[in-house]
């Protein structure tokens, strides 16, 4: 249907679409910061300035930690794509950051799958979607494994309303239903976008086992890095507890926030609520927790999204 549209008209709409994505992403970030019902952004900024919590050296160190965090994510993507095509680290950077910017407006960042696929030929896009799914699944696996361990320690050392049975029954039910559904889907002959599910299963099996190992290791290192960053920011607010104690709560927080179903609009709210509840058990006030969650979001989502918007605007054309 687009074949009859003049080339210049198509170029105009393509540029307009890119501008719309960037403008919408920046508006979404602004809306998140200024419409947070739990943390007034002006009060947050005033508190940071008034108490001089963050020196120039501290800010640089935090940005370095975020840079390493995203370097690992970019390296993970490069490793996955290398299973069928070699791309440079710069190309992996461009694809990862531009997809982050565009996916801010989609539920559970599902837009990331589509944007990364646009950088590849149409014959390769199904592989790209599958590889992106593997990367996200292994990152989630790390979150669940470490989160379960952390939550066990947390429940053993703190009196809370949370009960082992309720949490693990709920978690087991969710993953049980997922595995049962996946089993029956893979056994069926149904197709998704013209691809049979058994073919998808065979594709996953054909990938070298060392790729899974490398991606899992990168996901683990990335998790360790942003968990340390979360703990370090809290210490800047004067919170004093051991790294081990902090790690127990942080891993529990990421685990619970990941398994609680949510719409993307309320994702930050849910993470903040879980964090406030868990850290209140070790005497940390709500303002400190909300400030830490906000700074983590600014460093690891907003900052790379700004750079990603540059790549979105530079994106020239969809590969046929």
From TrEMBL:
Keywords attached to this entry: Cell membrane, Membrane, Transmembrane, Transmembrane helix
TM region(s), chain numbering: 12-34, 54-72, 133-155, 167-186, 207-225, 231-256, 263-280, 286-313
GO CC terms: plasma membrane
Main location: membrane
Pfam families reported for this sequence: LPG_synthase_TM
Membrane topology: Multi-pass membrane protein
Subcellular location: Cell membrane
Alphabetical list of InterPro entries matching this protein: L-PG_synthase/AglD
Name of the protein this chain belongs to: Flippase-like domain-containing protein
């Amino acid at each position: 249907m687009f074949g009859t549209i003049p080339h210049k008209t198509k170029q105009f709409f393509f540029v307009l679409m890119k501008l719309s994505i960037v403008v919408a992403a920046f508006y979404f970030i602004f809306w998140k910061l200024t419409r947070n019902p739990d943390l007034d952004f002006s009060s947050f900024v005033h508190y940071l300035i008034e108490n001089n919590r963050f020196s120039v050296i501290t800010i640089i160190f935090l940005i370095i930690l975020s840079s390493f965090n995203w370097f690992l994510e970019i390296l993970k993507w490069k490793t996955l794509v290398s299973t069928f095509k070699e791309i440079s680290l710069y190309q992996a950077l461009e694809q990862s950051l531009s997809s982050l910017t565009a996916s801010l407006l989609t539920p559970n960042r599902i837009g990331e799958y589509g944007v990364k696929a646009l950088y590849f030929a149409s014959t390769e896009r199904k592989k790209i979607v599958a590889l992106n799914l593997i990367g996200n699944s292994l990152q989630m696996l790390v979150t669940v494994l470490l989160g379960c361990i952390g939550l066990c320690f947390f429940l053993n050392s703190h009196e809370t309303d949370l009960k082992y049975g309720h949490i693990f029954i709920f978690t087991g039910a969710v993953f049980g239903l997922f595995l049962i559904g996946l089993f029956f889907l893979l056994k069926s002959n149904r197709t998704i976008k013209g691809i049979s599910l058994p073919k998808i299963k065979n594709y996953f099996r054909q990938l070298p086992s060392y790729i899974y190992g490398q991606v899992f290791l990168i996901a683990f290192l990335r998790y360790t890095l942003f968990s340390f960053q979360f703990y370090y920011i809290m210490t800047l607010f004067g919170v004093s507890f051991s790294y081990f104690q902090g790690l127990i709560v942080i891993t529990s927080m990421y685990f619970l926030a990941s398994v609680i179903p949510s719409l993307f609009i309320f994702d930050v709210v849910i993470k903040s609520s879980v964090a406030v509840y868990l850290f209140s058990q070790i005497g940390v006030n709500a303002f400190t927790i909300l400030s830490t969650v906000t700074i983590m979001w600014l460093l690891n989502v907003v900052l790379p999204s700004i750079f990603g918007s540059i790549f979105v605007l530079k994106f020239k054309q969809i590969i046929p």
